[in-house]
Amino acid sequence: MAQLPNSLEARDIAFQLHSYADARRQEEAGSLVIEKGEGIYVEDISGKRYIEGMAGLWSVAVGFGEKRLVDAATRQMEKLPYYHTFTYKTHGPSVELAEKLIEMAPVPMSKAYFTNSGSEANDTAVKLIWYRSNALGQPERKKIISRVRGYHGVTIASASLTGLPNNHRSFDLPLPQVLHTTSPHYRTMKKDGESETDFARRCAQDLEDLILAEGPETIAAFFAEPVMGAGGVVVPPEGYWEAVQPVLKKYGILFVADEVICGFGRTGNMFGTETYNLQPDIMTLSKALSSSYQPISALLINDTVYQPIADESHKIGVLGHGYTGSGHPVAAAVALENLKIIEERDLVGHVKEIAPTFQKRLAGLAANPLVVETRGIGLIGAAELAWEGFGDTPGAIGGKANAVFLEKGLISRNMGDAMAFCPPLIIAEAQVNDMFDIAEESLKAVADSL
């Protein structure tokens, strides 16, 4: 890519280290500079427009350029641009948002605690779970179970929970207290002749076997996304949650539902917890909480979690944890307005209405010889591409497809060879068809080239 010496592209290469990128390739190829966005579209610095098929990073629920969120941020910046929630201090937006989230929670919750990203929310959940175990006089109960292919973030603790190799390699992760159990991906993990229901039961049995092998008294919590996101949009098989949750209850293990991607309408209900009738003790929230207009995340904890923590903080004299930006007034004000928009415009109802078209078009991608599986629910899905016989290594075909998508005006994301689709919740039916028209055309071009 030819760059002018003082262009944004050249300065980006010179000064910025990027997430989820090959740094040497970055030096050679540079970045796509996105300059503005409106609705489901973004525009690069040259004026080319793209359908943002990933809602940014699974997150811009109400679309780009929503003036009500800009105005909410401006009003709050003028009134109180920053304050904190340390040492018995607070401010209106954090109080109102905490109250709103507790009211919205699909299962009884006691308190909200604010952080700045999904990673921080899950990292804090681990710390609070350990703190609670000590408060209960159970110092040995510190192990956490998550799942292979699960995604929970990139801090030291949350990256350990994440069950993806590239989040561990060369980082000396995962931490020894973190264990991983079977991924609920039926196609790749099933045994010959095993039905979805039988596979789901085996996943639950694998979980119980791991608990028993480690000692139930050492297991503190189980972290899981209702639908796996960055692990390739893995939708749980029939009967999975009905089989898994009783195992957790049997051994008194806390259940943390990571709603960072699923929360606020993505699966066709306000929360994935509702879609799958989950009963979590903790919920972690981010992304669509503010449509990512401001960095904010939250944990909701039930009373079973809260009371021992409160007792321990009283015993010690302080809960020694917090972030400068926890419950930031501007972020909280934007999140409140974002939730109002989601409710007033009935975006959850819109997802239910438009999901059949989305899922039908997603399934239609299977007509391409490269596609070995499509999977999804609500307005989230993935098309898995075959690399055996087509690509030199896993991820190669996904990378090629991603480049063609981009060239033709669609931003997707290949997670290995799984092409993901997660557009803003405001997407219209005609735009869903536009998005999948580009996807079909792009996959045909990739297949023809091979």
TrEMBL record:
Keyword RNA-binding: no
Entry-linked CDD domains: OAT_like
SUPFAM superfamilies referenced in this protein's UniProt entry, alphabetically: PLP-dependent transferases
UniProt KW Transferase keyword: yes
Keywords: Aminotransferase, Pyridoxal phosphate, Transferase
Cofactor(s) for this UniProt protein: pyridoxal 5'-phosphate
BP terms from Gene Ontology: biotin biosynthetic process; gamma-aminobutyric acid metabolic process
Molecular function terms from GO: adenosylmethionine-8-amino-7-oxononanoate transaminase activity; pyridoxal phosphate binding
Superkingdom per UniProt: Bacteria
InterPro entries on file: Aminotrans_3 (IPR005814), Aminotrans_3_PPA_site (IPR049704), PyrdxlP-dep_Trfase (IPR015424), PyrdxlP-dep_Trfase_major (IPR015421), PyrdxlP-dep_Trfase_small (IPR015422)
Protein family according to the UniProt entry: Belongs to the class-III pyridoxal-phosphate-dependent aminotransferase family.
PANTHER family: ADENOSYLMETHIONINE-8-AMINO-7-OXONONANOATE AMINOTRANSFERASE (PTHR42684:SF3)
Name recorded for this polypeptide: Aspartate aminotransferase family protein
Natural source organism: Roseibium aggregatum
